[in-house]
Amino acid sequence: MLLEVRDLHVEFHTRDGVAKAVNGVNYSVDAGETLAVLGESGSGKSVTAQAVMGILDIPPGRISGGEILFQGQDLLTLKEDERRKIRGAKMAMIFQDALSSLNPVLSVGEQLGEMFVVHRGMSKKDSRAKAVELMDRVRIPAAKERVGQYPHQFSGGMRQRIMIAMALALEPELIIADEPTTALDVTVQAQVMDLLAELQRELNMGLILITHDLGVVADVADKIAVMYAGKIVEQAPVHEIYKAPAHPYTRGLLDSIPRLDQKGQALYAIKGLPPNLLAIPPGCSFNPRCPLAQDLCRTDEPPLYDVTESPVPRTSACHFWKECLHG
Amino acid sequence: MAEAILEVRDLHKHYPLTQGILFKKQVGAVKAVDGVDFDLAAGETLGIVGESGCGKSTVAKMLVNLERPTSGTIRYKGEDITKLSPRALKAVRRNIQMVFQDPYTSLNPRMTVGDIIGEPYEIHPEVAPKGDRRRKVQDLLDVVGLNPEYINRYPHQFSGGQRQRIGIARGLALQPEIIVADEPVSALDVSVQAQVVNLLDNLQTEFSLSYVFIAHDLSIVRHISDRVGVMYLGRIIEIGTDAQIYDHPTHPYTQALLSAVPVPDPEARAHRERIILTGDVPSPANIPSGCRFRTRCWKAQERCELEVLLLAVPAVFRLTDSPAKHDSACHFAEEKQVVPPEEPQEPQEPEQP
């Protein structure tokens, strides 16, 4: 297994109390595999990724428990300088907003080349040639002429390609892409997702795709982890989850997509709001919004039930997963 | 079609590009909107889709007169609102209200919800006499599904979805006939989007509103719209009923746009044909000659470079009865199914929020 996150807990100390952003997350990614982490804002999907990358703001954040095993090694026990060698070289991250993730006063060539200077000890001149090579690889036209340009001179789609190029520079084994196409238009989104999938295949990388878009997930993911209030509530292979979700939250999300045969009718809507992380409801955190909720859900926190029915394992954190899966 | 309540003809908005400090010389123009025509019927929802920079938000701003058009007319019940005196404009504005995209920045953080929703009454006191306003605001809160007791709270005490409801309540305060909604749900979480879409739907029936619904999420636009216009670089390039546009698109750009939308069904991966466009949208300051889509179009020929085609029913479909008979600005318009037909699923009980 390339990456295994075990029972990860992250909390933030704020003026109003302790916000429990991640409450026992388990997931794993293999080489060449794509795991989609699906969730709304505040579900803890990005915080988990930041903990894996080691870029969490500490303080106010604090990893209060769990293990992050990367190629069998627990990253949380490593010293910062050891982690720095892994970050960028073995695992890299693509952020949502390319414009604010790139340095506006350095040319893209310098920013791309920096990877080779810092990690590989290359000279500035050689690193520039490498930068051109990378830009070619992510299909930026006229790479040689544009390598000296600055981020603002590129369009949104091109900037996101530069982010991808930067992440791929040292051919890492794991890529974490946090909403990589949310800021892009659909026609450009399709180009960028295609490019990412192709490079992943070529380099046999593990990919963690963090998103809230059920369409993007269906297009590229192998397996899905659905997060709600800092927990994974359902984990399953992509085909199974779309065919028959085993958690009412997943079902609600899928049902709220507008469908042709429902034109003119009200959309299905999950009632209520995502919980405040300072005061997560007792029992199942989804119970105040759940159509299946019973007394048990308000008192007992559901464990991750094994709901496997086909050869591929899947789990659901719902007491009534049977009703959800078959109802 | 029912009588048009809003008629937009040949609408242009050009922002000048200048050079020099003292003697500003115009060296060009950003043609944000460059010839847009459409009608909006009473009680209808017109969806406008397009990528960022295509001018859809500028159209919205001109409809509510937040921007003055460079040329063209916007007729509200036959009266051109771009040429009205300030006094007459004020009366018209009451009837055309707007809901903004970002519920975080479109509400003043220092005003209470009551003041925000009640502010339109300061400008149009004839709608609600002073003593009556508080009750009216509370009614509005109730209508949009918020607790009327929240009237003294501030925007930061609400979630994104609730704030958007406040924005909608403000839009409804003057009992308008037309609401221009510019990306009203795109800043919201997925599970909350459906609630707001349903609210807009219910309000339309309750108050017989006409909507101009601007968005980039094609599935939501299809759900809510009666007719859909597709914009590219400042122009509508195809317009028709929702079924005509989604099931029988004839313009290559519409086809590419529809095929690029990720379908939330992993089974569709295998048999879906995707048209991946090359390159980016050209700059609106430097629009290609002839057909403005030709630089990214796989059908483009010499003719597309030379002739500007107006939005009309393409000749090949003019005499047919097919659903492809709708306005599309392409020399080589042809039908192509890009959205996979959906299998009917068992109907589910929609839950009321």
Topology:
The complex is a heterodimer of chains A (327) and B (353).
Chain A: E1 3-14, E2 17-29, E3 34-38, H1 45-53, E4 61-70, E5 73-74, H2 80-86, E6 91-94, H3 98-101, H4 108-120, H5 124-137, H6 143-146, H7 156-168, E7 174-178, H8 186-203, E8 206-211, H9 214-220, E9 223-228, E10 231-237, H10 238-243, H11 248-255, H12 295-299, E11 305-306, E12 315-316, H13 321-326
Parallel strand pairs in A: 3-8, 3-9, 6-7, 7-8
Antiparallel strand pairs in A: 1-2, 1-4, 4-5, 9-10, 10-12, 11-12
Helix pairs in contact in A: 4-5, 7-8
Chain B: E1 4-19, E2 25-41, E3 45-49, H1 56-63, E4 71-76, E5 79-80, H2 86-93, E6 96-99, H3 113-123, H4 133-143, H5 160-172, E7 178-182, H6 190-207, E8 210-214, H7 218-224, E9 227-232, E10 235-241, H8 242-247, H9 252-260, H10 268-271, H11 302-306, H12 315-318, E11 327-328
Parallel strand pairs in B: 3-8, 3-9, 6-7, 7-8
Antiparallel strand pairs in B: 1-2, 1-4, 4-5, 9-10, 10-11
Helix pairs in contact in B: 3-4, 3-5, 4-5, 5-6
